[in-house]
Design a protein that fits this description.
Blueprint (H helix, E strand, L loop, with lengths): L16 E2 L2 H11 L5 E6 L5 H9 L2 E5 L6 H8 L5 E4 L8 H5 L6 E7 L5 H11 L4 E7 H7 L10 H9 E9 L4 E2 L6 E8 L8 H11 L7 H4 L5 H10 L13 H12 L1
Parallel strand pairs: 2-3, 2-5, 3-4, 5-6
Antiparallel strand pairs: 1-8, 6-9, 7-9
The structure holds S-adenosylmethionine.
The site of S-adenosylmethionine has 22 residues, from strand 1 and helix 2.
Length: 265
């Protein structure tokens, strides 16, 4: 492995490299990478996770914004001919174009994400509609929000948005001591498995309703949704023993889908 003792870590890129072999091994094992899988890794760093991925996947397509890592990555990954590293900002990269030359059955995203852009990265992956599974290291408290239960303070519109597309589960917590340099927060590995859904008539409407319902967290649905047909909404809520005095954090995804379908139809 190439020495990183002289490397100048860049805080602005969220550079905390994962050096704990047990954790690296665990992430890859829990990802259950099937034959014929292309793995996208966002934020290759020194290539520590990439190496493990390259052992299991058919291809690894890595993105790294910092081209001062080029030599280190080249040294660490020279023995793998199934790895391509793109030195670009993942958020700006034309990912669909880069995937064209590959032949694969499954596409997973497995990464120790740069924490300052966790949500935009996940939103881009959802928009691209390419990945059937994501296994990603995120800041622990962000992971708790992804996975939050109804009625808790972490439950918000992002929770609902992500849970609409994916079955979400926590794989493990990871101590800050597993990284170089050591960050100020602990981390968690979260798994997202894509659903194929057909229970919502109009996804745009659903996400508008969800966003508006959470607009003023302390207000109830009657106030947050006053621009919608409140009579129809109340009828749906009554089915679940609720009424318009309920707050968004106490409405499940299925209930929001039911509300949206009734406003559409
Ligand atoms: N995968 C490595 C590991 O586990 O040791 C590095 C993880 S580190 C938390 C995040 C990496 O993402 C850094 O190498 C950083 O330079 C890179 N990065 C930050 N912003 C990025 C972006 N917009 N596109 C691609 N890579 C980015």
């Amino acid at each position: 492995m190439s020495d990183i003792s002289n490397f100048e870590f860049k805080k602005k890129f969220g550079q905390n490299f994962l050096k704990d072999n047990n954790v690296l091994n665990n992430i890859v094992e829990k990802s259950e990478i099937e034959d014929d899988t292309l793995v996208i890794e966002i934020g290759v760093g020194a290539g520590y996770l990439t190496k493990y991925l390259a052992e299991k996947a058919k291809y690894v397509l890595g993105f790294e914004i910092d081209d001062s890592l080029k030599m280190i990555i080249a040294n660490n990954l020279h023995e793998y001919n199934n790895v391509e590293i793109v030195f670009e900002d993942f958020l700006k990269a034309n990912v669909t174009e880069k995937l064209k030359k590959y032949d694969y059955k499954h596409l997973y995203v497995i990464a120790n994400l740069p924490y300052y852009i966790t949500t935009p990265i996940i939103e881009k992956i959802i928009d691209l509609n390419i990945a059937e599974k994501l296994v990603v290291m995120v800041q622990k408290e962000v992971g708790d929000r992804f996975n939050a239960k109804m009625g808790t303070k972490e439950y918000n519109s992002l929770t609902l948005y992500l849970n609409y597309y994916f079955k979400i589960s926590k794989v493990m917590d990871v101590s800050r001591n597993s990284f170089i340099p050591k960050p100020n927060v602990d981390s968690a590995v979260i798994k997202f498995e894509r659903y194929s859904r057909n229970d919502c008539k109009n996804e745009n409407l659903l996400f508008n309703i969800i966003r508006d319902s959470f607009q003023f967290k302390r207000k109830n649905l009657r106030n947050n949704l006053k621009n919608y047909d409140l009579v129809k909404i109340e009828k749906v809520l009554n089915k679940y023993g609720k009424d318009l005095t309920v707050r968004a954090e106490n409405i499940s995804l299925e209930e929001f889908i039911d509300i949206s379908n009734n406003l559409e139809g």
